[in-house]
Amino acid sequence: MEKEQVKCxxxxxxxxxxxxxxxxxxxxxxxxxxxxxxxxGQLTTTTEVENFPGYPQGIGGPExxxxxxxxxxxxxxxxxxxxxxxxxxxxxPYTITIDDEKEIEAQTIIIATGATAKxxxxxxxxxxxxxxxxxxxxxxxxxxxxxxxxxxxGGDTACEEAIYLAGLASKVYLIVRKPxxxxxxxxQERVMNHExxxxxxxxxxxxxxxxxxxxxxHLVKRMGEADEQRYDLPIDGFFLAIGHKPNSDIFKPYLDTxxxxxxxTEAGTPRTKxxxxxxxxxxxxxxxxxxxxxxxxxxxxxxxxxRYLQQ
Length: 311
Ligand code: NDP
What we know:
The protein is of the alpha/beta class and 311 residues long. It has seven helices and 19 strands.
């Protein structure tokens, strides 16, 4: 198998990966970055980004990622297409296999592989992607001011997103498959007592409809053991909040993760339990999951790499 040695390997090309590449490039570390399955990361699937500082008029998600890519290239980052398919951190230098056909031996590694929002798996979610379907209320909620939206999920994220959206929308339906919420007590109370939020327990979304975007959702309501009622609910936006899956599978044998798979790092730093291996962005962040927080942790990871290599 082809082999290559690098000083600093960055896996993933979202805001964390590219920011790490900008800093590592400017520190003359010749970073090599593998872009992964979705070059540019989750932001390439959103339309307008209005909360990334420095863009008073907002910027398209794909444009923002293109700018970050160019900025990383300007400082010498070697950006390549390819997916990390295997990791061997049992000894140094650490080895990452790319596309099952090339081994990279790296003195330092920044894992910035992100997380993937879970979807229900409906064909209509793809059909209306960017046209009323979203997995991020903070990103897209603003476009639903005074409109009617639905949020799917019954955990803390779903409740948080429903409350956030209720500050903008005229009405929020929370579609919950069980007869109860899984969220923490305080979040449950806030949701149940919010005048704009209506919780639809024991409901499942089975499809969406609309001409040029989402105009409604097909629902199935469970009525006792065997019975169910099907009906359509008019909505303008459909938000998924049924959890995220961090892209950490190949690293799990070597690093500590929480029960969902988020890589555990030393508090307030991107340091993992292995020297020279750092985790930045959503793969290590179950709490904030914002482009700006990912970028910040990418910056921290690159500074850590620089200090580690100086030792
Ligand atoms: P959770 O796993 O806690 O909740 C997921 C929710 O989505 C559950 O209600 C689940 O239903 C539902 N769900 C999953 N799959 C489907 C499906 N196919 N169809 C319909 N519903 C589905 O994920 P969260 O993202 O909400 O939270 C993740 C972690 O982060 C949790 O530990 C949470 O406490 C934490 N968190 C904390 C916050 C805070 O403290 N402020 C804010 C946000 C998250 P069911 O209950 O039936 O399984």
